[in-house]
């Protein structure tokens, strides 16, 4: 008997990847960072590859090496690399590495020397996000260093890439500006003799809405898991995660009873309270207090009072509720249950955060559609 679980529909991931793959002539990188956005990196990666993904994308070197140790041989790009990491292990494992500065490139060159063979590098240019990537002033310097290293046989420049700031708002003027900046960055790379096989810019939103940004490779993340980056649009995607728990305790309390820490909720009448054993330690945002929707007994109810570390409370009125009844926090929505989008709206956040929070140490993931 289970107490709480996160169910992952691997067939939904396969269907989403197949849909995304059919919508582009570019190769597709399924982004599986952050433990597959809470869905489990390895099962999500294998499902995505089953459905035709050509690449996998991760942030950290450790994520990339975990894929390799698990026997994944598909191309993998890792892009969030702090100084001093054992990058030679990545080079030896045939992991592609990103570089956005001469200092980062120097670390990759050292790693290539230690590994004893050329490193595969993707040069990142900042086109307007102002996060990772070389600025317009630093881009020529990075290109010069990369061109020399490639001529020396120390690296292979496999890709040039960047990332959108506002692609989840189709029509926003920053999208065209960043695209123009990317073209300028590619033109300068060409002048330095850097002609990568892969030029990539499109995240989930751009993959779905801007085919002119697809170039040679697209990098969907959120959409792989069936969630849309564009509020109010679904694009035929199917959410893969369902989070649910069994009611631990149901009890009658009188009117005027304060509920949970701080008594931020008070019962209006005699009522049944249901205690659900999931809290902020398991992934429920504490700022969903008095706001988060949960389906129980065929009705969607709102959390009564504050979200605790390990539990939440629902006010069920006179509805029949007993210990062991299933409370569904979110899922695809097929059975009228809330979705991750509903939770994002209630908590004032984004659907990315909702799913990435779940599937931690205490709440087991259960996989449907495993092969």
How much of the sequence lies in strands comes to 15-25%
Give the number of helices: 11
What is the total tally of β strands?
Answer: 19
Given the helix and strand composition, which structural class is it?
alpha/beta
Cα-to-Cα separation, first versus last residue: 24 Å
**Uncertain runs:** none
Approximate helicity band = 25-40%
Write down the overall geometry.
elongated
**What is the H/E string?**
EHEHHEHEHEHEHEHEHEEEEEEEEEEHHE
Average pLDDT, to the nearest integer?
A: 97
What is the gyration radius calculated from CA atoms?
Answer: 24 Å
Q: Strands of the largest sheet, in order across it?
A: 8-7-6-5-4-3-2-9
The major sheet is characterized as: 8 strands, parallel
Q: Would you give an account of this structure?
A:
Strand 12 and strand 13 (265-266) form a beta hairpin. This protein has an 8-stranded parallel beta sheet. It has helices at residues 10-22, 33-37, 41-50, 61-69, 87-92, 102-115, 139-151, 173-191, 204-209, 340-347, 351-357; strands at residues 4-9, 27-31, 55-58, 76-78, 96-99, 119-124, 155-161, 198-200, 217-218, 241-246, 249-253, 258-259, 265-266, 271-276, 293-296, 299-302, 312-315, 326-330, 365-368. It is α/β, with parallel strands linked by helices and 371 residues long. The protein has 11 helices and 19 strands.
Summary tags:
19 strands; eight-stranded parallel sheet; elongated; 30% helix; alpha/beta; six-stranded mixed sheet; single chain; 371 residues
In brief:
By secondary structure, the chain is α/β, with parallel strands linked by helices. The chain contains eleven helices and 19 strands.
């Amino acid at each position: 008997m289970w107490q709480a679980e996160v169910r992952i529909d691997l067939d939904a991931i396969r269907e989403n990847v197949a849909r995304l793959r059919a919508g582009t002539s570019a190769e597709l990188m399924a982004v599986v960072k952050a433990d597959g956005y809470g869905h489990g990196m390895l099962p999500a990666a294998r499902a995505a590859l089953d459905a035709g993904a050509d690449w996998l994308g991760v942030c950290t070197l450790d994520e990339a090496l975990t894929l390799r140790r698990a026997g994944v041989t598909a191309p993998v790009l890792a892009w969030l690399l702090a100084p001093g990491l054992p990058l030679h292990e990545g080079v030896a494992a045939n992991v592609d590495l990103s570089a956005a500065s001469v200092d980062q490139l120097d670390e990759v060159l050292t790693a290539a020397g230690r590994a004893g063979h050329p490193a595969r590098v993707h040069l990142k240019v900042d086109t307007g996000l102002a996060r990772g990537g070389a600025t317009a002033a630093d881009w020529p310097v990075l290109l010069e260093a990369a061109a020399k290293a490639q001529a020396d046989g120390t690296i292979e420049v496999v890709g040039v890439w960047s990332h959108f700031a506002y692609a989840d708002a189709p029509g926003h003027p920053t999208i065209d500006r960043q695209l123009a900046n990317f073209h300028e960055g590619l033109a300068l790379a060409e002048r330095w003799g850097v002609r990568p096989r892969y030029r990539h810019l499109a995240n989930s939103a751009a993959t779905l809405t801007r085919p002119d940004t697809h170039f040679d490779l697209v990098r969907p993340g959120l959409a792989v898991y069936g969630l849309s980056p564009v509020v109010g649009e679904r694009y035929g995607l199917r959410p893969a995660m369902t989070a649910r728990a069994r009611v631990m305790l149901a009890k009658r309390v009188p009117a005027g009873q304060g509920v949970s820490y701080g008594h931020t909720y008070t019962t209006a009448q005699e009522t049944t309270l249901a205690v659900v054993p999931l809290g902020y330690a398991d992934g429920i945002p504490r700022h969903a207090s008095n706001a988060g929707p949960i389906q129980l007994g065929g009705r969607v109810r709102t959390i009564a009072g504050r979200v605790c570390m390990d539990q939440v409370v629902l006010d069920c009125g006179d509805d029949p509720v007993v210990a062991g009844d299933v409370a569904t926090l979110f899922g695809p929505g097929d059975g009228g249950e809330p979705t991750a989008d509903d939770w994002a709206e209630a908590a004032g956040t984004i659907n990315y955060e909702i799913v990435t929070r779940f599937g931690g140490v205490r709440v087991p993931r259960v996989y449907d559609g495993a092969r």
